[in-house]
Amino acid sequence: MKAVAIFAKQDLRLVEKESVVPGPGQVKIAVEWAGICGSDISYFLHGRSGTVEIKQPLIVGHEFSGTVLEIGPSETGSSEIGSFENKTLKIGDRVAVFPAKAIPGIELPDRLAGRDNLLAKVEYYGSAALPTDGGFVQEKIVDLNQAKKLPEGVSSKIGALAEPLSVAAHAVSRAGEIDYSKDILINGAGPIGLLILAWLKFKGAESAQNIIVADLSDKALNIAKNLGANKIINISRESLPNDIETVFEASGVMSALENILQNAARGGTVVQVGNLPIIPQEAVLGQLVTREINWKGSFRFTEKEFSDVVNSLDKIQGLDKIITHSFLLSQYEKAFETAVDKTQGASKVLVNISENLTENLNE
Predict the structure, then answer these.
(1) What CA–CA distance (Å, rounded) separates 4 from 138?
(2) Residue 82 pLDDT greater than 70, yes or no
(3) How far apart are CA 257 and CA 272, in angstroms?
(4) What burial class does residue 110 get, using C-beta atoms within 10 Å of its C-beta: 0-12 exposed, 13-18 middle, 19+ buried?
(5) Is the predicted pLDDT of residue 85 greater than 50, yes or no?
(6) Has residue 33 got a pLDDT over 50?
(7) Considering only CA atoms, which of 210, 214, 146 is closest in space to residue 183?
(8) Between 3.90.180.10, 3.30.300.10, 3.20.10.10, 3.40.50.280, what CATH number should domain 2-161+313-352 receive?
(9) Distance CA 283, CA 70 (A)
(10) Which residues contact 236 (CB under 8 A, 6 or more apart)?
């Protein structure tokens, strides 16, 4: 079977991997769709993501979905491969994959109960931190509890959005109780910003009439408008409104923070979901103190949030609008080049790993 692995900076290769059988408590997924994330792009461009460097070949990707191909034996039952099927999962089911796997012995303190996204160490598919191969592979063995069944009628293509949508859902939860009758600002119309918009629309039961999306790209802002943003602002031509009580900073650009903090309401909340640079940069943060802004970090998501997102995929409108480009596995180089090239207006770029689906592919 084929897989896409990164060996070093700008060194992606299509490699051959041996097929394996699932063990006790495991399931084999025939991967159909996988998304290219910002960390995948960073590995490709720089050979690193944040403080983590590529030191050995790594199969990329943590946003993926597919079909259950084989189920391993139960841990206490029959040893015959494929004999074990739990109440919710069977061969042929479409699933999205929860990409995190806890490490035995690494536990949370009581004050962080339920916040498994904050475990000090975790195996994460497609991450070089604790090198763990990801989902850009035609068959993937995962633990049974990591395979989350998609709702009836939801395609595996949409299922590949479950991981980044969970990032968005976690950011919204970090904001606390939101007054949907007041202005809400999303700064940054990349995939995460757009998915925050989609999740806000879903959680606000479409009652929100004041969701503002700001960015420098007209192409990205047009997607936001089509997705239901009530107002779009190109910040190169127009200023942000004042006194916004809830802000989602999804750009990760340090230079944006001064304006964000200035335009947030006194005592308002700014959720920082865009990854900030790891190298020193100048930033004016005085308004954080004088306006008593609640500046909250938002990191990944919990397993419960992932499950909630997967179970909601059939109810969220417009997710297909965020997928701007899709390619076959054999076109992996073009897929990454498209994701990197800002002039092509790419939002979420997906790769058809199975190469047996041909709808809406960019040739």
Answers:
(1) 10
(2) no
(3) 10
(4) exposed
(5) no
(6) yes
(7) 210
(8) 3.90.180.10
(9) 52
(10) 216
What is the per-residue pLDDT for 206?
Answer: 66
What does the domain layout of the chain look like in residue ranges? Answer: 2-161+313-352, 174-297
pLDDT above 90 covers a percentage of the chain that reads 84
Q: Are 108 and 120 in contact (CB under 8 A)?
A: no
DSSP letters spanning 208-240: ---EEEEES-HHHHHHHHHHT-SEEEETTTSPP
Dump pLDDT digits (tens) for 298-321: 999 999 999 999 999 999 989 999
Q: Which class for 217: exposed (0-12), middle (13-18), buried (19 or more C-beta within 10 A)?
A: middle
Q: Cα separation of 310 and 204, whole Å?
A: 18
Alpha helices in 88-143 (DSSP H): none
Phi-psi region at 92: left, alpha or beta (left = phi > 0; alpha = psi -120 to 50):
left
Global pTM? Answer: 0.94
Does the domain formed by 174-297 have CATH 1.20.140.10? no
The residue type at 203: K
